[in-house]
Amino acid sequence: MSKTDWRKGPFDVELYPEGERYIVRLRKGYIIEKMRFINRRCASDYVKALKKRSLVRKELRLDC
C-alpha cells in the first residue's frame, strides 16, 4: 500500500475495468485515490486485503 497515512478506515471501495486494466477506487470523505492493477485478480486480492484489515465500510460493485 503506497499512501498509508490517511488509510485508517473505514472507506468505500469500488472495483471496475478501465481499458485493459482494473481500477480500485478508494473514497474516504472527500479524499479519493485510484489504483491501477494489471488484472482483475490482483485488484480483487487488494480489496480482500483491505477487508481483512477492516478498512472497508462499503464495497460498491459494478458488473464487469
Question: What does this protein look like?
Answer:
The protein is built from 1 helix and 4 strands. With 64 residues, it is of the alpha+beta class. The protein has a domain at 15-58. It has a 4-stranded mixed beta sheet, with helices on one face. The mean pLDDT is 79.
Number of continuous helical runs: 1
Distance between the termini: 24 Å
Summed over residues and divided by their number, the pLDDT gives a mean of: 79
| Gyration radius, in Å | 11 Å
How many β-strand stretches? 4
The helix/strand order is: EEEHE
Strand and helix map with partners:
Layout: E1 11-18, E2 21-28, E3 31-37, H1 40-52, E4 56-61
Parallel strand pairs: 1-4
Antiparallel strand pairs: 1-2, 2-3
Summarize the structure.
This protein is α+β, with helices and mostly antiparallel strands and 64 residues long. It is 20% helix and 45% strand. The chain has a domain at 15-58.
Could you name the key traits of this structure?
64 residues, alpha+beta, 4-stranded mixed beta sheet, 1 helix, 45% strand, globular
